[in-house]
TrEMBL record:
Residues 17-80 form the RNA polymerase sigma-70 region domain. Keywords: DNA-binding, Sigma factor, Transcription, Transcription regulation. Residues 191-291 form the DUF6596 domain. This is RNA polymerase sigma factor. Gene3D superfamilies: 1.10.1740.10, Winged helix-like DNA-binding domain superfamily/Winged helix DNA-binding domain (1.10.10.10). It comes from Sphaerisporangium dianthi. It holds the Pfam family Sigma70_r4_2. SUPFAM superfamilies: Sigma2 domain of RNA polymerase sigma factors, Sigma3 and sigma4 domains of RNA polymerase sigma factors.
Amino acid sequence: MAVSEAHRAIDQVWRAEAARVTAGLARVVRDVGVAEELAQDALVAALEQWPREGVPRNPGAWLMAVGKRRAIDLIRRRERLERKVDELGHDLLAGGQDDDAALAALEGSLDGGIEDDMLRLVFTACHPVLSTEARVALTLRMLGGLKTEEIARAFLVGEPTVAQRIVRAKRTLSDARVPFEVPAGAELAGRLSSVLEVIYLIFNEGYTATAGDDWMRPALCEEALRLGRVLAGLMPREREVHGLVALMEIQASRSAARVGPSGEPVLLLEQDRGLWDRAAIGRGLAALERAEAIGAAPGPYTLQAAIAACHARAAEAGGTDWVRIAALYEALVRQVPSPVVELNRAVALAMAFGPEAGLRLVEELAGDPALKGYHLLPSVRGDLLFRLGRTAEARREFQRAASLTRNDRERTLLLARAAACVPADPRPGTGP
């Protein structure tokens, strides 16, 4: 196998398997930072061996096996080995046991509970010993396999800031000896909002990739949905868990319609709704009903799910209840004050009451420092200006949005929209 071909294969495997390998190793070593280092060691081994020997039939299992053997070597080197052996009540790693037997004994001695390493990884990374920003950044890195620049994009902050958060978070968890487990009782409920935030950010990175050649990364959406469904089973009386599952199911139902024949993005109002997955919509609406049946007031995920349901229930774009969507966004802004949510509300206002109404709010948001460099601000402004016939201004906004996005597919779409901004009756002195 050619080295370049092997490296491409390794990159694809790593994106798909890194989180599972890290989570499995964290269950062994009980330290998420060390687990990530061991997973990286396995990646280095793949880079050395696969170009010579070919990609194994089950590359994820290969990476896990190498990582586990590195974990055994690490445990053997630790000064705490003798104390660990005493605690377990028998000699796990000494005297003639091979690596596989030692590892099986070690894994069998670990605490029981929820048999889902990925879920353990989420709750460990979301431990209250960390700041909210650090919890989200660390989990996105370790569970979603996102690069530092992708996480920075999601948070609208600089890459160095995110990198520091991740390094400090791993060090803090290690120093505090945070157990690799799913908490119980009140502690579980206390960590839930951070976990939901992390899962939804992972879903969003899969739903609309912030960078690269692909508009979507379906594996991330699927993993976020899986985690959300597991949480819903664990916490059936938590309204927001069902709300998040409903939101993700309904949004994921559009996946086949969001990408054109050549991989180009297709915007919501232009999608063929016959391609929407009705089964996924049904699951989402059922989850929304479960959320709304619980007595607590609707939270941000339930409100967003209700917005998504307005789109899902409309047989065609023209039948969308934009007035209700605008009202739901207003309620969402009260709960989660955010310039990004306000930008979405501006779109809803424009659809419900005309582009002037939306543009007024967009102009108010233009000076918000949190939106500096956020490509969707000029994209929305360009759309509203185009609808008002101000095509020269619209073209400049679409061009600016194209210069800001990191996704190649989205850049192509924005440049096409800029090119379409041609005045119907061009007059001298009115060009850009």
